Structure to design on (606 residues):
């Protein structure tokens, strides 16, 4: 692996995470910037990258590797979606170079055959999950199921280091808009495990979600639940409905342990919902994985 | 029936509809006020009723009958939920009187055994649907299935003039928050029948709704759909998932024609989704029904 210093960025919808990576792969510095692509106007990504990110990261002279929604129509420039099956080799061959020395490279997204007559897309998770696979020799062969909980949760089947297929659930975004914008809105944030578990159980067949959601209002109005429990019950219903339908969409998931990758507290909710259904799972750091992925891509592309 | 003049109000979450009703049941005047209970502060409903509604409706000396969310914790005063089975008699016996002459009466809501271990509740639709039943002798006996499309769509089974059971879907509210607040937001408003029908078909088993929702983003990103089609596809997915799960929740709906009551353009979408699944339906005016319901209650209570 070419071990030159570089700037690694995971630039998503809500935030930009940047790391200065040393010659041996160590993290020299890290910053979280509040400019997700959803908040940027046209041309702003490029400007902020040069006037703020490079200086703050002491990375003016370093090659930069960016993954995530920065490569979408909402970001800096629209980069391709590569068709599955795809591994690190295909991604590295399609890196989009934007500038001369020191250079900016944006990682393409992935396109999967959909399960509903429509294709599915991802940007950012591919780097993280293939980086996670590359971190351990035992993951490089065989079938692996990875779940990225988040605004748009992704469930991905990887076989011998290649992404075969994935499916996206809007679960996190549904939770956010319902909790803040609907009749179910609540200021409660504390985890209520009992209410969460009840929600998971109530959604156990994945069906009639819009009707189950209204029961939250009915449960509060009739005094079955305290209003403070409603956010946890809502989370349980949404994650429970998702987990319940996975075996139908990605049938191989049925008999496999699930690898959860990403935000720890959200991963723990998914682990709990899976466990309630008798499915085992393990939680892994998303930060280390995305850095590993960008470093692998840089090495394969010999940059 | 006692045919004195009165003031009829359907005071819901988003609007107040008021009618001056003449001695023979004719509509003397009608007004739409933009003060749904969601927009009112504590005490404001009573104040607006006296300073604006009564004068504008020329109804200072008339008894007033109010149904809808005005009887909830968000409205004027919290009125009971009456347990199903319930008909006009039970509602009339539990009218809540608020003031001395000329008097204000608020109709109670209904409470149904739920289908998910939680009860279900309604306020406003009970007056409309029982009023509709009372409008025609042929509806007063036998089994009838009524659907009120709306922010919180209600499906109600009526047997021999009694509400037996109902179930609520948050379909309309999901449509609104997703169309305005999520990654699926769009300014498109025109009906695209082909996109709607595709959405209904895609949701045909009612399952994995959060995953199907994300396909709207994927369909637009990959050029399958024009962005203008996405609102109609979203509407089709949500109404399709609802219609698909109804026979499981209210099994008797399977073999019955559906009576759609309420907003005409929304009723027409439901009729289309039902027709796509081979279920026949008819559309009826909600306005006439709610007036008939309030007039029946006034008569039964001998006010």
């Amino acid at each position: 692996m070419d071990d030159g210093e570089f700037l690694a960025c995971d630039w998503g919808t809500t935030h930009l995470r940047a790391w200065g990576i040393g010659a041996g792969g160590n993290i020299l510095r890290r910053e979280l910037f509040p400019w997700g692509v959803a908040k940027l106007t046209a041309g702003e990504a490029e400007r902020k990258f040069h006037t703020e990110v490079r200086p703050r990261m002491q990375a003016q002279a370093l090659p930069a590797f960016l993954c995530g929604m920065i490569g979408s129509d909402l970001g800096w420039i629209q980069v391709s979606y590569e068709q599955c099956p795809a591994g690190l080799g295909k991604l590295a061959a399609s890196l989009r170079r934007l500038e001369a020395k020191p250079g900016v490279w944006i990682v393409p997204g992935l396109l999967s055959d959909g399960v509903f007559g429509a294709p599915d897309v991802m940007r950012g998770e591919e780097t993280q999950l293939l980086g996670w696979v590359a971190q351990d020799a035992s993951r490089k062969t065989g079938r692996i199921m990875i779940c990225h909980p988040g605004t748009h949760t992704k469930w991905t089947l990887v076989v011998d280091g290649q992404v075969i297929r994935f499916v996206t659930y809007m679960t996190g975004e549904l939770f956010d808009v319902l909790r803040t914008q609907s009749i179910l809105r609540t200021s409660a944030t504390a985890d209520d495990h009992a209410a969460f578990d009840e929600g998971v159980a109530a959604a156990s067949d994945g069906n009639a979600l819009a009707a189950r959601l209204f029961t939250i209002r009915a449960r509060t109005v009739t005094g079955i639940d305290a209003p403070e429990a409603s956010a946890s019950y809502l989370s349980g219903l949404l994650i429970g409905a998702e987990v319940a339908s996975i075996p139908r969409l990605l049938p191989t998931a049925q008999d496999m342990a699930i690898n959860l990758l990403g935000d720890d507290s959200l991963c723990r909710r998914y682990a709990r919902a899976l466990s309630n259904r008798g499915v085992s799972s393990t939680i892994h750091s998303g930060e280390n994985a995305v850095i590993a992925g960008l470093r692998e891509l840089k090495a394969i592309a010999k940059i």
Notes: Residues 219 and 225 of chain A are 5 Å apart (CA to CA). Chain A has a mean pLDDT of 92. Chain A has nine helices and 14 strands. The radius of gyration of chain A is 20 Å.
